[in-house]
Amino acid sequence: MTTAQLNMIDAPNSVPVRPAQLRPDVPHAYIGGDIDVVTAAQLLATMPELKVLDVRTPVEHGEGRIRGDLNLDFYADEFADQLAGLDREAYYLIYCRCGGRSGMTISFMRDLGFRHLIHMPAGIEGWVAAGLPIQSDR
Hints:
By secondary structure, the chain is α/β, with parallel strands linked by helices. 33% of the residues lie in helices and 11% in strands.
């Protein structure tokens, strides 16, 4: 991939990533895009600094989640402030139940200047359907 192509990988409306900032071991085609649950699991297994953000309600989160995720309730009054407080340089995998709230969250985060966003639109429903492990409060 050429330097020019690498510069175009970032999400629309985000600050461009310079090639020197890109990690050589991350499949950058995923940054700013949608991925399936199996690919998400593979990324989580190989990229320990990837932060997982679950934007479902606390009740939904307690019923089953990806181990080690951060739960920010999309419907909470403080949601925008919580997003604004996150590290804009970190890599995030964002999910919800089935893609709606996480898709809107991606848009909000882009507007806030986040650059390394990966969306899992199948959500926890797709994760469970694929037989991938979850953690729950039950």
